[in-house]
Write a structure and sequence with these properties.
This protein has about 210 residues and is of the alpha+beta class. It has helices spanning about 30, 100-115, 150-160, 185-195, 195-200, and strands at about 1-5, 20-25, 30-35, 40, 45, 65-70, 75, 80, 85-90, 90-95, 125-130, 145-150, 175, 185.
Length: about 210
């Protein structure tokens, strides 16, 4: 599955430019929900728009049919309100790290990669689609990192408990500093805080 990582701020991507990585073998329940014979993306995953995936890299995609419930409409015959379902063929999915559920999902995926990749190999990281925000999409298909998770034992070691549903609407986004426990509502705010010189001299808060 081709995954677009959004708002991933770090030293090598200080502007949070969108990144791409292909990961095959993630647990089905981590990505999808089966309901009434249909397949839905599990929040916080979103379907990536085809327009965001240039044709020259679509060889890295695995098209899938995904259902989405549309806003309820009134049936003129029965008078009942019902939510029609539409089905889309998606080329890739998107994960927004600027919201807490998306950030936590990416942390889980990173733990899976750490347990799956042999110790003598470098753990693949997603690649920015362009060198900076002023340059258009320039990533080639051969540049997109590909990870195949063959061992489900590695997945179980990384995530011993079932992945909890994150469908609660309007949940506050909180990113907490691991040193001083200060909280931020954006990942970029936490990222900038952790690189503050004063912060580096801060002693951990006693429990």
């Amino acid at each position: 599955m081709l995954i677009r990582i959004v708002s991933h701020f770090y030293r090598g991507n200080k502007h949070g430019i969108d990144e791409l990585i292909r990961i095959d073998g993630l647990p089905y329940d981590m990505l999808f929900i089966r309901r009434n014979g249909k397949t839905y993306l599990r929040p916080p995953w979103e379907r990536d728009a085809d327009v965001n995936i240039p044709k020259h890299i679509r060889g890295a995609c695995t098209p899938m049919e995904i259902s989405e419930d549309l806003p309820k409409e009134k049936n003129e015959v029965t008078g009942q309100w019902q939510a029609p379902t539409d089905t889309y063929t998606v080329l890739g999915v998107k994960l927004n790290l600027d919201i807490q559920p998306g950030y936590e999902m990416w942390q889980r995926i990173q733990r899976i990669l750490e347990h799956s990749v042999p110790r003598d190999m470098k753990i693949p990281v997603p690649k920015p689609v362009a060198p900076d925000q002023k340059v258009p999409f320039s990533l080639e298909e051969s540049d997109i990192p590909v990870v195949v998770i063959a061992s489900q034992e590695a997945v179980k070691a990384a995530i011993p408990e079932p992945v909890a549903s994150v469908e609660t609407p309007n949940a506050p986004n909180v990113f907490k500093c691991g040193v001083c426990k200060r909280e931020f509502d954006k990942q970029r705010g936490l990222w900038m805080h952790e690189r503050n010189k004063r912060h580096k001299n801060t002693e951990p808060v006693a429990a």
